[in-house]
Amino acid sequence: MQQDSAKRQDVPRRRGRPVQIDAQTREAMVLDAVADLLGHSRLEDVSMAGIARKVGMSKRTLYAIFGSREELLGATFARIGRTIFRPLESRDHARPLCERLRKLLTINPMPQFEQAPLELLRAVVAEAPMYPGIAQQFDAEGRGALIGYITHEIESAADAGEIVLHGMTPFDAAELLADMVMGNALHHLLTPSETKSCDPYEEKCRRRDHAVDIFLHGLQPR
């Protein structure tokens, strides 16, 4: 009996099947890896081979999820845009228009891009002639999505008589406000070495609040 027991203990156990990762989780893992790479590498250095290595899968598997580098980067920028600019929650719609606009225009931080947002934008612009889809996706899912959220709130406020658009369309008014808040990106791209003494986040909040106040003052019913 003891010998039989010892033999059974010596027999190695068979390993079970590896845990299968569902498609949604696998896609999220890939997008996490790309976002991390974008925070530390130049856009032109973010390759499908490097992404596959970082996430621990073969290039063949990666291409089965995303058919091209352009598609993968587009999906990454879409995800980043949805993180930085978020639509209002249902409970926010009861707030005054000024508060709704301020919340929409609050940039939600992503730690991996705190030190390199301009570098990322510069890289996207540089790749635009060769990969126009990446640039279009970057713009549509970032600034474009934000303008869409603002347009909806302005249209609702105009219908309710809170504001008067004075011949502008809701989209034109939303684009004007977004530009007032975000400022001139070209200036920042051309002068990256300029440093400011105040906290960047506080400065952005002050500019946002001033822009919303001036914007709504100009649209008051008369």
From TrEMBL:
It holds the Pfam family TetR_C_7. GO terms for molecular function: DNA-binding transcription factor activity; transcription cis-regulatory region binding. It comes from the Bacteria. Residues 24-84 form the HTH tetR-type domain. The keyword DNA-binding applies. Residues 47-66 bind DNA. Keywords: DNA-binding. This is TetR family transcriptional regulator.
